[in-house]
Write a structure and sequence with these properties.
This protein has 13 helices and 8 strands. By secondary structure, the chain is α/β, with parallel strands linked by helices. It has one domain: Phosphoenolpyruvate-binding domains (TIM Barrel, Alpha-Beta Barrel). Strand 3 (67-71), helix 4 and strand 4 form a beta-alpha-beta unit. It is globular, with a radius of gyration of 18 Å.
Length: 255
């Protein structure tokens, strides 16, 4: 089976920079995947992407060295199974708040005896190799998204779930949960403290500490703080920022 380069990089002490796709376009996903990022996440939760589009986007990402990932809409087994069968090499599951929810997430994504995932590898057998079923439980990356006060309070129990590879902090919802304005680069001290506690607990248990950011500068800062996996803003946000900057530059030169 093809090695999951994310796990290999983190095991070697190297950071993972992840791109984030919310536009339902295989062309966009493919283009982004070829820009030097370590992985690309296809967002089926907040992105304008259904399964058919995600399938084609996974094909696009697979033309590059970047690892294809997906964020599913919710902790629901059928969509996890479908995106894994389609070639996702990892799942980010939103709004995990308890040990039981983390256990359900892992069970849906691991083959027996570790879990209850149904066998039907579909496209992933082409991408990963004919021995996929034998090694999938080892290579597939599973990150539970921690984005509420309740999840922070239960983080030790969540991290204790066998088969979970790490946590993924969602700063926007986490900020809202603590009564602060949503932000991908929070400044509220209570939110920052919670983020730090989650990061340190994950690192102490040998699991991956991942987080979403608002850009390259914040990602660098999070890496320096000890997060091992950082996501850049969505493709839509990067597109808006680039067009806005171009418009400002062009118009500012007009007499």
């Amino acid at each position: 089976m093809r090695e999951n380069a994310i796990k290999a990089r983190i095991a070697a002490g190297k950071p993972v920079l992840n791109a984030w796709c919310s536009i339902a376009s295989s062309h966009v996903a493919e283009a982004i995947a070829h820009q030097g990022v370590d992985s690309v996440t296809i967002d089926l939760q907040h992105g304008a992407i259904d399964f058919a589009a995600a399938f084609q986007m996974l094909q696009g990402v697979s033309t590059s060295p970047a690892v294809p990932l997906a964020r599913v809409p919710w902790n629901e087994p059928s969509i996890m199974s479908k995106v894994l069968d389609a070639g996702a090499f990892g799942i980010i599951c939103p709004m995990i708040e308890t040990q039981a929810e983390a256990e359900a997430f892992v069970a849906a994504c691991r083959y027996p005896p570790q879990g209850s995932r149904s066998y039907g590898p579909n496209r992933v057998s082409f991408y990963a190799g004919p021995d996929y079923a034998r090694h999938a439980n080892r290579e597939i990356l599973l990150l539970a998204q921690i984005e509420t006060r309740r999840a922070v309070e239960n983080v030790n129990a969540i991290l204790s779930v066998p088969g979970l590879d790490g946590i993924y902090v969602g700063p926007g919802d986490l900020s809202l949960s603590y009564g602060a304005a949503p932000s991908m680069s929070p400044t509220d001290p209570v939110v920052l403290k919670a983020m730090g506690e989650v990061r340190e607990r994950a690192r102490a248990t040998g699991l991956i500490a991942a987080i979403h950011t608002d850009g390259a500068a914040t990602a660098r800062r999070r890496f320096e703080e000890g997060f091992q996996f950082c996501s850049l803003p969505t493709d839509v946000r990067l597109l808006i920022d680039a067009v806005r900057a171009a418009v400002h530059t062009a118009k500012s030169t007009v007499p």
